[in-house]
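Incident log, support desk, overnight shift.

02:14 A customer reports that sequence design results differ from what the structure should imply. Their input is reproduced verbatim below. On-call engineer (initials T.W.) acknowledged and began investigating.
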């Protein structure tokens, strides 16, 4: 996966954690659990704490898009510095007051701070490809189940509301059966 320099280590971890080997997952879990401590130790010390080989730590870093552990430590330090600035900004949000409107304003401020992090995992090419596929599709089918189902329903309703009709299939089993007969111009997410 190609990463933009704007994508911080914790965002990268969240993006790839399910694709990592179990030993690499243990490494990144310790990084998440003790980020401040990890920036102060060597790759060997991290390996010893997790109970893996140093090469596993290096492989974990490479799975996150870094050349090695030193680059990960620099990125973690940068992310910690940014998050401390965000925390101090959020702490000042009490100026909005304890009212419902004040809390809404505080939540919107926090969202405004978080949005660049969310957008940082997107690349121009991926967004253009997704838009091209949506625009070029004759049929859009949004498939989800469990906790993702309300999000899929929301997406299909929003697409329909802006003039791009989309179907929502809440049951993944039901979506598999007719998909074999769908034309190539059908897009399924």
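02:41 Re-run completed on a clean worker. Output:
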């Amino acid at each position: 996966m190609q990463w933009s320099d704007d994508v911080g280590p914790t965002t990268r971890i969240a993006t790839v954690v399910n694709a990592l080997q179990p030993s690499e997952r243990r490494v990144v879990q310790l990084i998440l659990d003790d980020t401040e401590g990890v920036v102060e130790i060597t790759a060997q010390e991290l390996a010893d704490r997790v109970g893996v080989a140093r090469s596993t730590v290096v492989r974990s870093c490479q799975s996150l898009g870094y050349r090695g552990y030193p680059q990960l430590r620099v990125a973690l330090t940068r992310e910690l510095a940014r998050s401390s600035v965000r925390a101090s900004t959020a702490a000042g949000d009490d100026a909005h007051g304890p009212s419902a409107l004040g809390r809404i304003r505080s939540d919107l401020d926090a969202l405004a701070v978080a949005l660049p992090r969310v957008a940082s995992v997107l690349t121009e090419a991926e967004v253009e490809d997704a838009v091209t596929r949506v625009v070029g599709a004759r049929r859009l089918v949004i498939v989800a189940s469990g906790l993702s189902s309300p999000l899929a329903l929301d997406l299909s309703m929003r697409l329909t509301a802006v003039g791009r009709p989309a179907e929502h299939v809440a049951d993944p089993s039901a979506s598999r059966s007719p998909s074999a007969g769908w034309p190539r111009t059908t897009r399924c997410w």
